[in-house]
Amino acid sequence: MGTVRAAMEPVIGIDLGTTYSAVATVEGGRPFVIPSRQGSRLTPSVVGFTALGDRVVGERAQILGDEAPDRVAPATKRYIGKRWTQELAVAAKSVVPYPLIQGPSGEVRIKVAGRTMPLTQVSAMLLGELKLDAEAHFGRSVQRCVITVPANFDDGQRQATREAARIAGLDVMRMVNEPTAAAMAYGLVNAVRGRVLVFDLGGGTFDVSILEMENGVFEVRATGGDPQLGGDDFDQCIVQWLLAQVPDLYREAVLRDRISMQRLRYAAERAKRTLSDQPEAFLSATELGDHSEINDGRFCQLDTALTREFFESLAEPLSLRCLEVVQRTLAEAKLGPDDIEAVMLVGGMTRVPLVRKLVQQFFGRPAVAGLNPDEAVALGAAVHATELVNRAGTTTLIDVATHSLSVGVLGGTVRKLITRNTPVPAVARELFLPNRAGQTSARIPIFQGESEWADESTRLGELVLGDLTVERRADVPIEVTFELSNEGTLSVRAVDTTTGIAEAIRIDARTTLAPQEVDKLVKEQADYAASQAAKDKSQVMTAFPRVLDKAERLVRILERSAEENPSPEADAVVGQVKALLAQGRVAVKLADTTQMAEVTRMLESLVALA
Ligand code: AMP
Questions:
Q1: Chain centre distance of CA 195
Q2: If you take atom 14 of ligand 1, which residue's CA is the nearest one?
Q3: Which of 124, 126, 443, 601 would suit a FRET pair with 159, their CA atoms being 20 to 30 Å apart?
Q4: Residue 325 CB coordination number (10 Å)
Q5: Rounded distance, CA 457 to CA 404, Å?
Q6: Which residues are catalytic?
Q7: What is the atom index within ligand 1 of the atom nearest the CA of 45?
Q8: What would the pLDDT profile of 438-471 be if each residue is shown by its tens digit?
């Protein structure tokens, strides 16, 4: 067996989901999900603070949210990397239990348990937890990773995800689109090839990707999606149905009350999950009413039942919206349903029987089975991370731009430099005569989206050319270069064609935090991680003797069965367990927790094979 200590620093793949997140790795050529330190394969994407001010993440935060919705922050991925607007803040009121607050660089911050936090810090706390889980699994520090993002994430959302990873102390080798990662996992595990469609319905977003998969080349042909369509919307249908059952006397108060609305949402989400396995779900929500101090304790309670059939009728408009997106994406790729050789389901919502039925009816065959739809993305990210480190060259990933990128021109229209579905990395150049009002600076607006009109596109910001000298004439053309990286982030350059001078530019719509604040958050997170890691370490030291006891019992059982049925294989397994036992004893002597973690993992995999 050789040494148990892996020569290489481990790498991980992270699926940072809206409702659930997962972390995976590849060992022995097989991708697998690393369980959390609580033993779960998925970690709820929830961060919270107890009444004592202690940070809780994942399951513990979800449990806290049941009791105190104002102390937790779920589903923050819906808003990460977006600019704060009044409309966004108002719309969020009916979706999440926390208020959205405008930050100094126009970013979204949230107020939870009395503290105001940037969303990249919330994501960093989630990422930090997954990092700690991976470190507990490997018994050593882990930095390098691949993180996935929804295909339709724009530049700002991708930049913010990178910022969150930085705060969490992670070294992101590459960000990959979620459906592409899932296709890599399905491709490896199920040996699927040909033209495939990934149907990715998560908690907050819906993505569709069409890929060609042949001999290790994963080439994205088209992507589509609806960034405002996900499991939360299905929950919302149930919430509306529940609200109709709240007695008239209380309905107004419940609608206004964040805590009551959160209780209804939790009840709705649980019922939706139950209905994936059962024909009927019972829902109960207590203490519905006004939770403000002036209420004299008048609350109502709701107990009701929902059948799968009725849920399907409530959710029908949403499922039709999913199909429309699929049809649009197929049309864009100039394909029909029959041209697709396999459909891959991704995202927790594809466990819903209605969604599976819909896919089966539309494509005339069931989706590929074999992977858990909520794990495929993390597994694919791990496969890609390993590929990047090994540089084995067995797989190549060619992704596409998921939005068109343009420059605003006169007359309120836009000129597209990079069109949607262009393979990335992509570079495009064009000459512009910017409006140089005031002569000392010039502004070129940058847009994203498919419309020809600026006011129907998303404004990414403005290229600001500063310090223009008076001698330089107003009509000097500026060459603008857009560079879209292989992970979908945009960089822009501008050169004065007469002088060749590259202009200093900035995209002013980016909502990245000030460097000093990032540094402060990095330190805070590092301190927290160090104290958690110390706790984890002492837990391993306490638990490891029990692992060795188990291994001793295992040796005795294996020896007995080898005596009864002698074979070279049986002898070999006995030898392997004995060797691990010896290494474990050395680890105890040296208090080497890395070695302990590795011995534990090896023993577990031997037991799984036995
Ligand atoms: P994701 O963003 O992939 O984690 O997807 C999470 C969404 O899937 C949430 O809306 C969950 O409520 C939903 N979900 C997860 N598991 C199930 C299930 N067994 N049945 C129905 N919906 C589920």
A1: 25
A2: 348
A3: 443
A4: 18
A5: 10
A6: 15, 77, 178, 200
A7: 4
A8: 556 677 888 988 999 999 998 887 777 666 554 5
pLDDT in tens, 315-367: 999 999 999 999 999 998 999 999 999 999 998 899 999 999 999 999 999 99
Residues with Cβ within 8 Å of residue 199, at least 6 apart in sequence: 208, 322, 326, 343, 344, 345, 346, 350, 359, 367
CB atoms within 10 A of CB 148: 28
Q: How far is the CA of 373 from the centre of ligand 1 (A)?
A: 9
Structure tokens at 558: 């294996």
**Ligand 1 atom at minimal distance to the Cα of residue 234:** 10
Give the pairing of strands 299-307 and 280-289.
Answer: antiparallel
- Average pLDDT for residues 50-68, to the nearest whole number? 93
* Range name among 250-264, 315-329, 481-495 with the lowest pLDDT average: 481-495
Element housing 609 (H / E)? helix 593-609
Is 148:13 a contact under the CB 8 Å cutoff? yes
Residues with CB under 6 A from ligand 1: 17-20, 202-203, 231-232, 269, 272-273, 276, 347-349, 351-352, 374
Identify the helix (H) or strand (E) that includes residue 12.
strand 12-15
Distance 415 CA to ligand 1 centre (A): 39
Amino acid at 373: P
Report how far residue 189's alpha carbon sits from residue 59's, in angstroms, rounded to the nearest whole number: 29
Among 15, 78, 374, 377, say which to mutate for ligand 1: greatest number of ligand atoms within 8 Å of CB. Answer: 374
Question: Residue 429 pLDDT > 60, yes or no?
Answer: yes
Please tell me the distance between residue 273's alpha carbon and the centre of ligand 1 in angstroms. Answer: 7
Residue 112: strand pairing partners: 115
Identify which of 349, 351, 372 to mutate to test ligand 1's pocket (most ligand atoms within 8 A of the CB). Answer: 349
Amino acid, res. 106: G
101-153, pLDDT tens digit by residue?
A: 999 988 999 999 999 999 999 999 999 999 999 999 998 999 999 999 988 88
Distance 232 CA to ligand 1 centre (A): 9
d(CA 324, CA 341): 20
Q: What is the DSSP string of 377-396?
A: HHHHHHHHHHHHHHT--S-E
Place of tokens 């949403």: 318
Cα–Cα distance measured from residue 26 to residue 10, given in angstroms and rounded to the nearest whole number:
9
| pLDDT digits 0-9 by tens, 160-171 | 999 999 999 999
Nearest partner of 218 among 22, 486, 10, judged by Cα:
486
Distance from Cα 202 to the centre of ligand 1, integer Å: 6
Integer Cα distance of 302 and 166 in angstroms: 44
Q: pTM for the whole thing? A: 0.84
